[in-house]
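Weekly sync, protein design subgroup
Attendees: M.S., D.O., the rotation student, P.L. (late)

Item 1: inverse folding check
M.S. brought a backbone from last month's batch and wanted to see whether the design step gives back something sensible before we order anything. D.O. pointed out we never logged the input encoding, so this time it goes straight into the notes. Structure tokens as presented (338 positions):
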């Protein structure tokens, strides 16, 4: 059997008279190898981040809504873009790698003003250790902040602010919260590390403005008719983006609903539904609701899609009307009214 281990190193393990100084030598070599490995990893990490940024500019800022709805490959196809790298860009990438390999780059520092708390500091270490940093979100630490925060890998410094329970639900079941997310579940982490990671992530974007929902003019809400086609369109959107929290029955019993506090809204509560105006609810769907896990869908859903899902959730408060819509009788009722 062929081995790639040096003979001298093998001798240390096979020699019955192995001495302590050999063990120390091995440990020293291992530590040096680990340090070199981290330096090389950082080099490729920085290069990948820089090239990703340059590619993003070459891709003419692929529409984040299209990416969220259809995935990266489909978005690139839809945009019919060609990826090109100039000699200057490639040279910049090589320069970054050279700097990293020479040890000038020891690791990025998290953004945010002021000194991190012990909990945030712990979360930062978890963030660096886990694939969060090395696989996806390196640009969050390495590149300047831009206004275009959304996209295939969002800039966590500019993304909307989230509550701790939103992060908890997202960590438990990412696809239940954001159906097209590539984020893996991190339930393998201890509870204290999850809390620390949440504190660190909340630090990153704490400067982002919180938009409070206010009733919008009726003219800003697209008209959605009471038809089976409109019902099915709203149902499809709800089952894709809302069912993880609100549940298939609209009663707040989604797969991650029990994690959230306050609990997701129960749309089967007819008394509550009748008191709400569509002008206000449309604003909530658009911008989210502060101090709750309800996110805004302004960058994910079009105005017509938001109006369609708003129309759909009102059916939960009227089981009879919902049943009629399911079988297509709502079209007949609409025609009878006309």
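Designed sequence read out in the meeting:
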């Amino acid at each position: 059997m062929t081995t790639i281990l040096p003979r001298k190193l093998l001798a240390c393990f096979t020699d019955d008279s192995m001495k302590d100084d050999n063990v120390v030598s091995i440990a020293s070599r291992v530590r040096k190898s680990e340090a070199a490995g981290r330096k090389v990893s950082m080099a490729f990490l920085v290069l990948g981040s820089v090239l990703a940024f340059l590619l993003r500019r070459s891709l003419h800022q692929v529409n984040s809504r299209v990416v969220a709805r259809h995935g990266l490959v489909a978005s690139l196809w839809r945009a019919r873009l060609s990826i090109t790298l100039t000699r200057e860009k490639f040279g910049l990438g090589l320069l970054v790698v050279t700097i990293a390999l020479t040890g000038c780059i020891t690791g990025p520092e998290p953004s945010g003003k002021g000194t991190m708390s012990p909990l945030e500091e712990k979360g930062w270490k978890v963030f660096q250790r886990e694939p969060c940093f090395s696989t996806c979100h390196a640009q969050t630490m390495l590149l300047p902040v831009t206004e275009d925060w959304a996209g295939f890998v969002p800039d966590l410094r500019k993304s909307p602010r989230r509550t701790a329970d939103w992060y908890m639900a997202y960590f438990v079941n990412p696809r239940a919260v954001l159906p097209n997310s590539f984020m893996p579940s991190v339930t393998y982490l201890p509870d204290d590390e999850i809390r620390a990671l949440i504190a660190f992530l909340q630090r990153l974007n704490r400067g982002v403005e919180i938009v409070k929902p206010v009733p919008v003019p009726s003219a800003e809400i697209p008209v959605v008719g009471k038809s089976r086609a409109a019902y099915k369109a709203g149902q499809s959107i709800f089952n894709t983006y809302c069912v993880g929290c609100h549940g298939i029955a609209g009663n707040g019993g989604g797969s991650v609903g029990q994690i959230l506090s306050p609990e997701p809204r129960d749309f089967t509560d007819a008394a509550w539904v009748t008191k709400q105006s569509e002008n206000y609810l449309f604003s909530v769907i658009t911008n989210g609701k502060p101090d709750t896990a309800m996110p805004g869908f302004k960058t994910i859903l079009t105005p017509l899609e938001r109006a369609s899902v708003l129309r759909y959730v009102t059916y939960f408060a009227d089981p009879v009307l919902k049943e009629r819509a399911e079988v297509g009788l709502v079209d007949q009722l609409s025609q009878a009214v006309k």
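Discussion: Confidence is low (pLDDT under 50) at residues 1-27, 53-85, 96-107. The radius of gyration is 26 Å.
Action: P.L. to compare against the previous round before Friday.
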